[in-house]
Amino acid sequence: MDQETEYGYGTLTPPAYDMTQPPDEVHSYPINGGQSGEERPGDPSVFARMAKWCPDGSAALAQCEDRTFRFLQLPAELLGITAECTAHASLPGYLTQSAPILDYAWYPAASIRDPASFCFVASVRECPVKLLDASDGRLRASYRIVDHRERQIAPHSLAFNVSANRLYCGFEDAIEVFDINCPGEGTRLHTTPSKKSRDGLKGIISALSFAPDTSSGLYAAGSLSPSSPSSSNIAIFSEDTGEVPVMFVGAEGGRHGAGHGVRASVSQLMFNPARPYLLYASFRRMDSIFCWDLRADVGEPVEIFSRAAVPINAKGRRAATNQRLRFDIDYGGRWLSVGDQDGGISVFDLAAQPDRAGENAPRPSSTPRTTPIMQFDGHRDAVGSVAFHPIRPLLLSVSGSRHFEGPAPVSGASSDSDDESAEDEPVGANPAKPWKSPGVTISRRRPQPVALDASVKLWRFEHSLSFDDSTTHIQG
What we know:
By secondary structure, this protein is mainly beta.
């Protein structure tokens, strides 16, 4: 692909992806395996919920289940990083937080080559929003969101505007806006007039996304409250108009009515990097990704991307999960990739349907449904997120989810055997309890979650390396 895409910080040429064959797996390692030189042993319950590339692709940061951020150990030669830069960075293995992590976002100009800009913001439960130095985890600044009872509120979604001078934080019925250069308290934008009102955007603001063009100042906000007959759960706002929505996506005539709104919680919102008028949304417990054209009628989507009904690994499909499975669009705006709860990864061609320009363009009688042009087995567990590299034809994927099947894992030395035998005592062995039948064992240990496959994998869409296609399948 030779087109160029404009961003707020310059012009770049997006990488070319070869989608005629499944990608090569060029790097893989378990994130919970315990690595050399680290103090922590392997923990089977730890997995990465999502991973994001640094804006220039020089590093990748993962949010993990054990309240930590981890820099992923990826080959520097594949990322185009010089040895001098890698040695100078000396990135830490862990950045431990005091409470569960809700969301994080890289500073839009962050680069491992520029220590001053190499930072990100993090939302940690019951803490102010933190601006952390990515090189050592040092706190640079904090931004407070306080409710009417003087409690600290941690936002569920974070997003920088295109100019990178403001930080937007979504929480219940409001969006807090901070000037990055002025830590402290921000400006609150109420998304609904009152708690009892049915108007506006109700519920926890779970997703925020800015249109990538510098002129419009538009951003989308989505709520965990499903769309109802009286309101939509996706709204478009403008930085110039404040808390008054420009339009509601999925509402008839752009008003408050839900119309064709999706009756599910919003998991993720994202604009197309090359066509900023296209908005994509995923929803909780739904396999489809919806697309709306903001230039035309937003009452119904212009395209729906649906994964295959049968898992590609030929196993039985499990029940829908509440876990967020994040999708990504490459910087050229051509390819969309998303994982599923069975470990498969799908790739959609966003140019498969013709671009219907303008609000007067003829609309089809029904919303087109697009299927993947490629699907392949990526992991043995739910794929929490995928991320395209900004300048190289690489795709990063992380997997893992909580599983409580089977007995609780037993760990520790032989000194724990007495406690275990006391906890797993056969019923009836105690003469003080003669009314219970012997031979039945009751375990008083609480079952601990285990991740079946907590791995990180890097895929390359250039076929210079051999690969085993026995585990990959293509549809298209």
